[in-house]
Amino acid sequence: MSEHPSSPPKGIRSWMRLWVDQIKLLLDSLEIKRTHLVGNSLGGAIALHLLAEAPERIDRVVLMGPAGAPFRLTRELDRIWGFYEDPSKEAMAQMIRWFAYDESFIEDQLDNISKMRFEAAMNPAVRRSYEAMFPQPRQQIVDDLVLPSATLRRIQQQVLLVHGLNDPIVPVETSYYLAQHLPRVKMMIYGQCSHWTQVEHRDSFHSLLLSFFKDKI
Amino acid sequence: MSEHPSSPPKGIRSWMRLWVDQIKLLLDSLEIKRTHLVGNSLGGAIALHLLAEAPERIDRVVLMGPAGAPFRLTRELDRIWGFYEDPSKEAMAQMIRWFAYDESFIEDQLDNISKMRFEAAMNPAVRRSYEAMFPQPRQQIVDDLVLPSATLRRIQQQVLLVHGLNDPIVPVETSYYLAQHLPRVKMMIYGQCSHWTQVEHRDSFHSLLLSFFKDKI
Amino acid sequence: MSEHPSSPPKGIRSWMRLWVDQIKLLLDSLEIKRTHLVGNSLGGAIALHLLAEAPERIDRVVLMGPAGAPFRLTRELDRIWGFYEDPSKEAMAQMIRWFAYDESFIEDQLDNISKMRFEAAMNPAVRRSYEAMFPQPRQQIVDDLVLPSATLRRIQQQVLLVHGLNDPIVPVETSYYLAQHLPRVKMMIYGQCSHWTQVEHRDSFHSLLLSFFKDKI
Amino acid sequence: MSEHPSSPPKGIRSWMRLWVDQIKLLLDSLEIKRTHLVGNSLGGAIALHLLAEAPERIDRVVLMGPAGAPFRLTRELDRIWGFYEDPSKEAMAQMIRWFAYDESFIEDQLDNISKMRFEAAMNPAVRRSYEAMFPQPRQQIVDDLVLPSATLRRIQQQVLLVHGLNDPIVPVETSYYLAQHLPRVKMMIYGQCSHWTQVEHRDSFHSLLLSFFKDKI
Amino acid sequence: MSEHPSSPPKGIRSWMRLWVDQIKLLLDSLEIKRTHLVGNSLGGAIALHLLAEAPERIDRVVLMGPAGAPFRLTRELDRIWGFYEDPSKEAMAQMIRWFAYDESFIEDQLDNISKMRFEAAMNPAVRRSYEAMFPQPRQQIVDDLVLPSATLRRIQQQVLLVHGLNDPIVPVETSYYLAQHLPRVKMMIYGQCSHWTQVEHRDSFHSLLLSFFKDKI
Amino acid sequence: MSEHPSSPPKGIRSWMRLWVDQIKLLLDSLEIKRTHLVGNSLGGAIALHLLAEAPERIDRVVLMGPAGAPFRLTRELDRIWGFYEDPSKEAMAQMIRWFAYDESFIEDQLDNISKMRFEAAMNPAVRRSYEAMFPQPRQQIVDDLVLPSATLRRIQQQVLLVHGLNDPIVPVETSYYLAQHLPRVKMMIYGQCSHWTQVEHRDSFHSLLLSFFKDKI
Amino acid sequence: MSEHPSSPPKGIRSWMRLWVDQIKLLLDSLEIKRTHLVGNSLGGAIALHLLAEAPERIDRVVLMGPAGAPFRLTRELDRIWGFYEDPSKEAMAQMIRWFAYDESFIEDQLDNISKMRFEAAMNPAVRRSYEAMFPQPRQQIVDDLVLPSATLRRIQQQVLLVHGLNDPIVPVETSYYLAQHLPRVKMMIYGQCSHWTQVEHRDSFHSLLLSFFKDKI
Amino acid sequence: MSEHPSSPPKGIRSWMRLWVDQIKLLLDSLEIKRTHLVGNSLGGAIALHLLAEAPERIDRVVLMGPAGAPFRLTRELDRIWGFYEDPSKEAMAQMIRWFAYDESFIEDQLDNISKMRFEAAMNPAVRRSYEAMFPQPRQQIVDDLVLPSATLRRIQQQVLLVHGLNDPIVPVETSYYLAQHLPRVKMMIYGQCSHWTQVEHRDSFHSLLLSFFKDKI
Fold first, then answer.
1. Largest pairwise CA distance in chain H
2. Helix ranges, chain E (H)
3. How far apart are the first and last CA of chain B?
4. Chain F contact for D10 (CB, 8 A cutoff)
5. Do the domain assignments include residue G36?
6. Which of A33, B213, C191, H193 has the smallest CB count inside 10 Å?
7. Measured distance CA(G165)–CA(G65) in Å, rounded
């Protein structure tokens, strides 16, 4: 996904097509027959689509705060996907705050991060792609990412769901829903945790994934 | 809890009083200042009451398929607690089936286990205690076990909830509820799993608890 | 079930125990190893309990307007089970009307039937048994007849559900519920039909059962 | 319906007009005064419209997994009707899987079928018609197919509804709804069955229809 | 209904039996073959039971603020039926206020009326009957008065429902419910009106009934 | 409202403006200071808007099956307002059937009426106006006709609501809603009656209105 | 209310009678014609009953966390009213914690207070009265305290409701309900506040009441 | 906000950006480091956005009938924001009536006010700005004004919410919602009061704000 196409696909389903094909190509070019997969947020939805379409290439899967299940678009996610409607450093700072349950540990770097990210976001190529991915109405995007339940129930891989209990961006009920439909599933929920489980519970998260990939948990 | 009092307490709240006091005495007599705690099912509710009343004695806590939160009495639990209304070896066998999601791995021993358990249950002392614990209407028992939310939100210990996704006895939503009210919580849910997480996912369960008590997860 | 015990069991669950044991004895005494089963209304619940407890004795099963699933006690059923609270020929006539969607075809015999049934009902032995079966509160009876879903999902027999769409006594949703929980199920619903499918759609019903028992439908 | 018009009607209601008129013409040209009717899925909705408009031409009617009642668009149906938004052989294979509850019996031919169907679908005339039938938003299509209840309650024909209990494309509740509104109705529901009742329960289905058309069921 | 039996019937259903029989006797002794009927409040329920049981004796029927349909016991009705739990002149005055939407027109007589009614109520025979009619729990009384819908749909008489829109004792939804189930029904609702339609809208009420009994409305 | 403007207003609210102004002009030109008002269906909504805006011109008001309150667009109304999307004599006949609960009394004239109305409808001027009134999405039309409750509660006129209990076009709940918000209201509901109360209950309707306008009911 | 009767009234409504009468006597003996009133918790319900019965004696009224409206019994209140079912110093301490949102400011005195209160509670006269007030089922007590809405809407006094937003004992929705039904009402809600508004927001509370009684707020 | 830009921003979020920036500039130019803030209706939403973005500039905050929380667009607000769809002096008068619960005290000036406001509204510059702020669909405007809950819970200022209980424009539940999410909040609700708390309860409102800004309440 290194470059931004000058005439980007329109709508999230065409992007999904592109991402899934890119990953398959990547696996081919690296001569990887079968691999574990970790998907975060939107990446969780990509992982699920890949599982449905190329199950023979995938082994165990970890999904963190994943999209791919039906949920009611949160205001936080609406503002994140709609960032370019009214882009500002202040809005960027607000967004970054939402990713953490306890913002104190990023407080002193918040200005720096916001500034850096805002500048990166102002890159025209980035903006062009991003705006093409997330047009209004954004509830439609959430819905287009959903895998039909008749597809979910056929996924045979072991899936580990990881979600922050207080995630205001992708609500924890999304993972509760996936757990109901995936046949071979485990689910780990972290309290006092927002959308960044891997940051707010770093050590536990690291240890959990190691155990899961070694088939110990 | 080695002996059955000849005139047992009446109602689950008096039993709860007794159990909490017994555990405190036990800890005193063993000269244990502070301990980890593992509570299963009804034992989960006991652990929560102990946490509320003697927090200085408890360190980390694991609750498996715990009572202690509000839930609608399931028919399965109603039949289990009401076993003596119409006791039979057949009813015992039905009950044991409910504890496993996939009964095949106990199938060949089911007759033996049912018979043994039925005989044990017919011990008059056991029956006297059990009937005193679980009188009708049994929704009342579930409700009497619940800790007020104003109490739950004051528990400062790390709590790990473990629950089978398909538990027909204590539904998984019970743990979802506790997770919402306990301030420092993690929750692990097992798919294709009924009320016996420690049996149906033995190795994973073992590994998870070790990590948790070592503060690694 | 030919005779009425002079001191009848109390409560529907003790009666259920009795009925299930009687049927097993009957099958033994007739040296029937394995049989098809047809259960109507309350008899449907009995059939389901037998299926759970002695599956090796039962082949294909037909349930007509069956109890055994959770439903909200209808006023009609409450009045039928509570007939002896205020027994009269008029009340008997009202009840008989409820069994048919279109009462016209029994209209001319209604007086006769009501009279006969009323006299039979006034037999003290019948009354004693009946009152012992259906004490207040009657929602409890409906609930006590229910098989836990963890039991229903383990029934391996082919079950055919038959229900009148306009049944005011046991609502058709009861069969919709059973269909959701029984793994190997077919369901036939008759329009313009009350609780007596076998009377109001006699020929179709007859033909359907023949086909089902011959494994043609 | 042999040919695809070069400028196809727009929207499902104009198509419906066309289909109903075509069938009436067909009956005229074949000099059929009155006929039984079998309608599958979308065809079920067509049959119902024909019943409302030309009741004198129709005798008994069978509807399998029919549209024509209100239901919430399933994701599966949304993807099927929106196939051309992102057509691929992989998507075709996913869709075919949804039609069966147990895909094992088509597993070995799935590749062949998907390929054949995909090629057929890529025929520009087919695509043109199909896209003209099913434009976004597709909930609108479901709604436009619905017959007002004031029309349904006037249909005097015997109607047999047939539906798979696990149909993820047109949910079984659709038939439950039609049964509530059609005055002369029977309904047969198959367990462990998806959208293809006629395939997954072939023999039973065949036998059932014969009996129904002979007025035996 | 002139006298109060020294050992009154227990429970509302036995009273209902008594009242219906009394009315039939009355009609017989007066040699009335067939009559119009006006039933108010509890009297509405009596009228409906009479309609079900002796339809040949009844012509047109007016029901004012009638019981006989399911509704959630209002606090006002609970206090009225439970008056003797804590009888006082003050409580009597409160109750009388509830019967009018605008109490101003009875304000100056309220003291007199309360006193008179309170004294009458303290008559031991009245009290004995009343307490026997309305024991706790009173939701049960409301429920026992309900006619099963399978009975309501068979009533062939013309029924006129009259109800105050702001009735806090028997809510107007009760008449909405009856209107749904009685086949030949008209319903007149008065705004700014409590339980006493015949008092608060006297002239209109009078005129309406005349027209109805003359078959003009 | 005698002529159809060649460039008609767009949207129902502009039409409402036009209608209200036309009626005020009409009253002026006829030198009517104050008048009773009868409004049917859409005309009911017009009457309510007139009441809000020119209360000094209006005396007593009768609303029959009125719009003007919030309700969920029925399919029947959607098809009526969308008639020109797919106009046909058959569709016209269907629509006419909906206006009567019991179509038998118009059955023999149905063909004639349908034909006449269809021809009238095909008049281009009529069609132009009609299509301009009722564009999609039609739920919006229902909503735009609604009077805010803060306006309804200020209407001081006596209003009589008349509605058919089985109206499939404007549901009876619409009048229940208006009754809740209009301070001085009476409501007459007819059983076995669709949208044409004045046709299906002609004599009663006539008599009721006379009484109402004479202040007798 | 200085003494505890040796045979106390049974049930909350008899107590209510007693309390209201005592207050009226008190006002008489002190020769107070008309007074402001402040009612806290259960005292709020007493104040409302007094308002309904002796409105001429009362001026402005303040209700803090009042009962008297319908609400679902909270577990906290159930445990408080049921204290004597299982009395202990530990249970007393738990209860006291619930009265404060932030327990830190009573933390150091908690032991003392709990001990004192526990000893006071063990006074047999206190216990006798208390147990007579709050028998099971306690939802019934909440319900018996409720004033019918037809009574509430007639209260003409200015009422100021004061409630803690986080009150776990009497939920804030209770005051929201009263505000909807009392015609002349103001309501002040405190954030970060439990059942003791007068303690946790002492200065603001003091200032607010002064202003209210001086008719300044 | 003195002038109306000739090409106004499109959509409420761009306007919000503009307003927030203008206020910050204003504070700068007046050299105000930190200030109390009072926001009314839409102004309440502006105040909340300012709080989120420039918390260091704001001290205590009063919000009256504020937007900024999710609520279902009321018809009244829809008509106010959509005034220019069908502008008239009559519509203006209707709108003004909604702002008061008891319109009597503005009755005699209503004509004058309506006329003045209507003329002001017909100023093309005003209209241009207003129409640019409030385009259809207006539910979207309400939603775009909402602050994500993850932002609200981080606001550290003392906020006083003031709302009329009978506000038909911004419903009181909006303030109930904000109270749940703002950590340091008080809320004052006025009975018999519409959207203009500061007008209908002028003296109390004045006194309340003084006390609040002096930290006395």
1. 47
2. 12-29, 42-53, 75-81, 89-99, 110-121, 124-133, 139-145, 149-152, 173-181, 197-200, 202-213
3. 32
4. no
5. yes
6. A33
7. 10
CB contact under 8 A, G187 and H189: yes
Order the strands of the C58-64 sheet from edge to edge.
Answer: C35-40, C58-64, C159-164, C185-190, D185-190, D159-164, D58-64, D35-40
- Report yes or no on chains E and B touching (3+ CB pairs under 8 A): no
Q: Check E163, E167, E194, E201 and give the catalytic one.
A: E167
Q: What is the pLDDT of residue F103?
A: 82
A86 closest CB neighbour out of H14, H143, H146: H14
At residue C47, φ and ψ (nearest 5 deg) are: -60, -40
Torsion, Cα of C83, C86, C92, C96 (10° steps): -50
Per-position DSSP letters for F25-93, written without gaps between them:
HHHHHTT-SSEEEEEETHHHHHHHHHHHH-GGGEEEEEEES--SS--PPPHHHHHHHTGGGS--HHHHH
* Total Cβ atoms within 10 A of residue E148: 22
Tell me the pairing of strands G58-64 and B35-40.
unpaired
Query: Is some CB atom of chain C closer than 8 A to the CB atom of B81?
Result: no
| Strand order from edge to edge, sheet including F185-190 | E35-40, E58-64, E159-164, E185-190, F185-190, F159-164, F58-64, F35-40
The 8-class DSSP code of residue C184 comes to S
pLDDT at E1: 42
Domain presence at residue A7: no
Q: Is D167 one of the annotated active-site residues of the chain? A: yes
Q: Are E111 and E104 in contact (CB under 8 A)?
A: no
Closest CA to H77 of H91, H100, H95: H95
- Minimal CA–CA distance to F211: which of E64, E203, E192? E203
pTM: 0.94
Residue B56 · residue B34 · CB < 8 Å: yes
Q: For residue B188, what are the CA distances in angstroms to B59, B191, B207, G82, H42? A: 19, 10, 12, 35, 45
The number of distinct structural domains making up chain F is: 1
Q: How far apart are CA C118 and CA F78, in angstroms?
A: 54
What's the helix, strand, coil split of chain H in %, to 5? 55, 10, 35
Residues C92 and D181: their CA atoms lie apart, in Å, by 31
Mean pLDDT of chain E: 94
Give the model's confidence band at E100: pLDDT under 50 very low, under 70 low, under 90 confident, else very high: very high
Q: For the CA atoms of chain B, what is the radius of gyration?
A: 17
Structural domain for H58, as ranges:
12-213
Contact D89, D115 (CB under 8 A): yes
In tens, the pLDDT along A1-50 reads 446 888 888 889 999 999 999 999 999 999 999 999 999 999 999 999 99
φ/ψ of residue D137, rounded to 5: -80, 135
- What is residue G142's DSSP assignment? H
Helix (H) or strand (E) holding C38: strand C35-40
What are the tens digits of pLDDT across the range H113-122? 999 999 999 9
Q: Give the amino acid at D5.
A: P
Q: Is A167 a catalytic residue?
A: yes
Taking each helix axis from N to C end, the angle separating G110-121 and G89-99, rounded to the nearest 10 degrees, works out to 120
Q: What is the CATH number of the domain that holds A64?
A: 3.40.50.1820
Active site members of C: 41, 167, 195
Q: What is the 3-state secondary structure (H, E, C) of E171-187?
A: CCHHHHHHHHHCCCEEE
Closest CA to D196 of D39, D65, D47, D38: D65
Whether G150 and chain E come into contact, CB under 8 Å, resolves to yes
Q: E1 lies in a domain?
A: no
| Residues of chain A numbered 15-44 and touching chain D (CB < 8 Å) | 17
Give the E-state strand segments of C65-203 in sequence order: 159-164, 185-190
End-to-end C-alpha distance for chain A, whole angstroms: 32
Beta bridge partners of F188: E188, F162
Residue C69 lies in a domain: yes
Query: Which residues touch C148 (CB under 8 Å, ≥6 apart)?
Result: B74, B75, B76, B79, B98, B168
Cα–Cα distance list, D155 to D55, D150, G21, G122 (Å): 8, 10, 69, 75
